[in-house]
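hiii, so i know i said id send this last week but things got crazy w the move. better late than never?? heres the sequnce for the chain we talked about at the cafe, plus the structure i predicted for it. fair warning i was half asleep when i ran it
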Amino acid sequence: MKVKVYVSALILIALTALKLLVPDEADRLRNIIMPEIMGKTDFRTQMLSLGSRLSGGDTVRVSEDNDVSKSPVDAKGGPLDISGDFVLADMVAENLIGFADTNTAAEDESSESALPPPADDEKRKKQAAFLEVQSAFSDYVIPAEVSYDIPVLPFEYACPADATVSSAFGYRVHPTHGDVRFHYGTDYALGDGEEIHAFAGGTIAAVQRFSGYGLTLVIDHGNGCSTLYAHCSQILVEAGDSVQLGQPVALAGHSGKVTGPHLHFELEINGLRYNPELCF
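okay and structure toks below
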């Protein structure tokens, strides 16, 4: 509808100019153009019919898929050369550049900025390797409280232990029970008495001893994120304390049900356990 208004306005302006320069020709064109503009509702058909009448040729019929089924002819009855013609919609679109809806553009930019930053290639490689390992356990259902996605956190963090991974996150053959069970954290090969550091700044949410996890520490980092440190030999902080990123918070040990000293580390975000190794 907007296109019709624009084109009609352009035509009326052109007629006004012609009337000043060549009054007789302007009147002839007006008698052809105005009935076409006022009498048809299908704008595409209207423009094609108008073009035909101005050129003196036959009416051009257009099929639903916009293929021309009857080509216009010249005064001698031969095919009319329309190689220099342009599509009306293309012309209008080109001349409306710069009049885009700025509010829509702003919403698009805002929506894009709200998305989490893309994970780097190294993390994606680790995720692919992790999924490859877990494919061996495809017969097992992923626990409802678990996510295999790459964790996205809005604060600085670091690995809680300067050690190698001794047992990874995900399905595994349990070291003491011998059956396949899901491992909700990552085990780091720390010896008795080695320091465990806070994954990020936060508040000590709990210090407790569990039969399986042994002496355990939980840190609340805010933003729905918390971390758990199990099998400790000693806790260096108390519940309610504030801690900083990298601060020593416990010493590794072999409390609970374990085969040897190590740190069992879990990462929870909004109620879901994530693979901590995909953070680094």
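btw Residues 2-112 form one domain. thought thatd interest u
miss u guys!!
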